[in-house]
Write a structure and sequence with these properties.
This protein has helices spanning 18-30, 44-54, 62-67, 78-90, 105-118, 127-130, 132-144, 171-181, 183-194, 256-273, 281-310; strands spanning 10-14, 35-40, 58-59, 71-74, 94-98, 122-125, 147-155, 197-204, 210-216, 221-227, 236-243, 246-249. The chain is of the alpha/beta class. The chain folds into 2 domains: 10-128 and 257-279, 3-Layer(aba) Sandwich (Rossmann fold); 144-251, Dihydrodipicolinate Reductase, domain 2. A 6-stranded parallel β-sheet has the order 3-2-1-4-5-6, sandwiched between helices. It has a 6-stranded mixed β-sheet with strand order 8-9-10-7-11-12. It starts with 9 loop residues before the first strand and ends with a helix.
C-alpha cells in the first residue's frame, strides 16, 4: 500500500550522474515543500559526494532509503530504473521517473503494473510538460484543437564533432541514440495535442538519426526527425503545429531545475488527491510502446534496403 504523505513529504533520489547532479538534486534541495530524504547510487562514494553538497545523507542500503522516504525520484539509465521503480512501488513509495521509463515494453509494463498495484502516484519527468512556457503552450494548443499537421526536429549534437558534454559518456544514450533520448520529448507534446498514435512509419538517417511519420487519433499527422549526432552548427530543437488556427511554434523553455520542481509538485498533488498525473507511468508505458515500434520498423526498413543493395 502506498504511503500517506505528511505535511512535508520525504523524497529521496536514486542516481548520482550528471543529470542527477545538475537537475534532480538541486531541485530537491531547493524545494521548500518537501524534505530531501537522501541519495542512493550504484557508486557509494558518488552518493556521499552528492549528498554532502545537497544537504542530505547518503544511503548504501536502498531499502533503507525506501523506508526513510514517502517518494523517490530516479536519475538512472532506463533499464536500471525500471526494476528499481518496481521495488520502490512495492515498498509503498510514490515514484518520480525519468524518461524513458524503460527501453522494453515488458519493463515499462512492469513499472506501470507495480505502481497501480501499490496505489502509488507516479510522474514521468518529460521536461516540456513541466517547464512553464512549454507546459502553458501545450495546454493552450490542446484546448484550441483543429490541428492538421505537426512538424518537429530535435537535432542534438551530443555526439557531434567537438562535443564535450558529460552526457556523451552515457552508455544507454550511445546505444539507443536520439530516438529514445529526445523522442520522448517530442511525443510528450504530440500526444496531448494531437491524440494517441495510430500509425507509424520510420526510417533511419545518418548516424543515430531517425525520421518518423505518425498518424494520430484526431486525424492529424506529424513528423519528427530525431538525432544526437548533428553538427553543433546545426543543433536545434523545434516543433510547429499547423491547423485552422494558423501556424504556431513551441516556445523556448527555461532550465530543467525549475521544471523538475514542477514535476515534484505534480507528484505530491497526485499522491494527495489520488488523481493520476497526466504524465504518469501509464503514459510512460505508451511512450515506450511507440518508440519500440518505431525502432523495429526502422531496423526492418534498413535491413530490407541493405538486402536490395546486395542483390544489385
Amino acid at each position: 500500500m502506498a504511503k500517506q504523505l505528511g505535511a512535508k513529504p520525504r523524497i529521496g533520489l536514486l542516481g548520482t550522474g550528471p543529470w542527477a547532479g545538475h537537475t534532480h538534486a538541486p531541485a530537491l534541495a531547493a524545494h521548500r515543500g518537501i524534505e530531501f530524504s537522501g541519495v542512493w547510487g550504484r557508486r557509494p562514494e558518488a552518493a556521499a559526494a552528492l549528498a554532502a553538497v545537497s544537504g542530505t545523507r547518503a544511503y548504501e542500503d536502498l531499502d533503507a532509503l525506501f523506508e526513510a522516504s514517502d517518494a523517490v525520484a530516479f536519475a538512472l539509465p532506463p533499464d536500471v530504473q525500471a526494476p528499481l521503480a518496481v521495488r520502490a512501488a512495492e515498498a509503498g513509495c510514490h515514484v518520480l521517473l525519468d524518461k524513458p521509463v524503460a527501453t522494453t515494453v515488458a519493463g515499462a509494463r512492469e513499472v506501470a503494473g507495480a505502481v497501480e498495484a501499490a496505489g502509488a502516484a507516479s510522474v514521468v519527468f518529460c521536461t516540456l510538460r513541466f517547464a512553464g512556457p512549454t507546459a502553458r503552450w501545450i495546454e493552450e494548443q490542446t484546448a484550441a484543437g483543429g490541428w492538421f499537421l505537426g512538424e518537429a526536429h530535435w537535432l542534438g549534437s551530443l555526439y557531434g564533432a567537438g562535443s564535450s558534454s558529460a552526457y556523451a559518456a552515457s552508455p544507454w544514450r550511445r546505444e539507443k541514440g536520439g530516438l529514445w533520448d529526445v523522442g520522448p520529448h517530442v511525443l510528450s507534446v504530440y500526444l496531448p495535442v494531437l491524440g494517441d498514435v495510430t500509425e507509424i512509419t520510420a526510417a533511419r538517417g545518418p548516424a543515430d538519426t531517425h525520421h518518423l511519420v505518425l498518424r494520430h487519433t484526431s486525424g492529424a499527422s506529424s513528423t519528427a526527425t530525431l538525432t544526437l549526432s548533428a553538427p553543433p552548427e546545426a543543433a536545434e530543437a523545434a516543433l510547429t503545429l499547423y491547423g485552422s488556427g494558423g501556424r504556431v511554434e513551441l516556445p523556448r523553455w527555461d532550465g530543467a531545475v525549475g521544471a523538475f520542481g514542477a514535476a515534484v509538485d505534480a507528484l505530491v498533488e497526485a499522491a494527495r488527491t489520488g488523481e493520476p498525473a497526466a504524465c504518469d507511468a501509464r503514459f510512460g508505458l505508451r511512450l515506450t510502446e511507440i518508440l519500440t515500434r518505431a525502432e523495429a520498423l526502422a531496423e526492418a526498413r534498413a535491413k530490407e534496403s541493405a538486402e536490395e543493395r546486395a542483390q544489385g
